[in-house]
Amino acid sequence: SAVISQKPSRDICQRGTSLTIQCQVDSQVTMMFWYRQQPGQSLTLIATANQGSEATYESGFVIDKFPISRPNLTFSTLTVSNMSPEDSSIYLCSVEDRGEYNEQFFGPGTRLTVL
Amino acid sequence: GNSVTQMEGPVTLSEEAFLTINCTYTATGYPSLFWYVQYPGEGLQLLLKATKADDKGSNKGFEATYRKETTSFHLEKGSVQVSDSAVYFCALTGRGDKIIFGKGTRLHILP
Fold first, then answer.
1. β-pair partners for A105
2. What is the pLDDT of chain A when averaged over all its residues?
3. Distances from the Cα of A61 to the Cα of A82, B6, B30, B60, angstroms
4. Which residues in chain A have Cβ-Cβ distances shorter than 8 Å to B86?
5. Cβ proximity of B73 and B55 under 8 Å
6. To pair with B94 at 20 to 30 A between CA atoms, which of A15, B1, B11, B16?
7. Residue B93 and residue A100: Cβ atoms within 8 Å?
8. pLDDT digits (tens, 9 = 90+) for A48-87
């Protein structure tokens, strides 16, 4: 199984600022994903981070608000831009084991509070 | 499309009680089924999985059986502990599809 780390683990930010979250995997993976988990809710997929090309965003999420980078097969960043209190959530990075069972492994998450 | 429905929480039990968290699914083909657990302040961890009908996944005393006839994957544990307090997510994925999560069930175990 992949070991995933995220930085920062938590942050408190002011409205209108931006925060970049880093995700590092201990092995090369093809598929990396970014999720948002709003307080008391399940996970919502923001986008698939594609290595060497633009990320694929889910309905309701746009690149201007959540720009993503994927410079190589072990690293990705998600930026939350022009933040508002509604962006307060846990942001999770995950990778997929593209073996037979499409199992996903998750990072510990970044807990973001926007004041 | 694919979907997962799990029982709403919170579920509150006393230590050593029997636990069942219901999960049913809708999917085409033969999905893989998962239970993930999220302990307070942490990310998601895979708890167990089953990849074909009648498979039983098990880990840490938890079990779930892939029932195709009832499209269910209920999570059970015979004797819960306070340390089992967490949020549990049922999930499925089909080959080539994105993983789909249920809404999560919060479990509180009282000493």
1. A95
2. 92
3. 14, 26, 30, 37
4. none
5. no
6. B11
7. no
8. 998 888 899 999 999 999 999 999 999 999 999 999 999 9
Query: How far does chain B reach from its first CA to its final CA, in angstroms?
Result: 41
Of all residues in chain A, the one with the smallest CA distance to B50 is A101
Q: Average pLDDT for residues A10-37, to the nearest whole number? A: 94
Residue identified by tokens 């809404």 is B103
Q: What is the pLDDT of residues B29-63, one digit of tens each?
A: 889 999 999 998 788 899 999 999 999 999 999 99
Structure tokens at A42: 């399940």
Distance CA A43, CA A72 (A): 25
The mean of the pLDDT values for chain B is 93
Give the confidence band of B83 by pLDDT, cuts at 50, 70, 90: very high
Q: How far from chain centre, in Å, is Cα B54?
A: 16
Indicate the SS3 state at residue B21: strand
End-to-end alpha-carbon separation of chain A, Å?
Answer: 36
Coil, strand, or helix at residue B82? helix
Contact call for B49 and A108, based on CB within 8 A: no
Burial string for A3-37 (b: 16+ CB within 10 Å, else e) reads: ebebeeeeeebeeeeebebbbebeeebebbbbbbb
Name which of A32, A41, A43, A113 to mutate to probe chain B: the one with the most chain B Cβ atoms within 10 A of its Cβ: A43
**Separation of alpha carbons B111 and B108, rounded Å:** 10
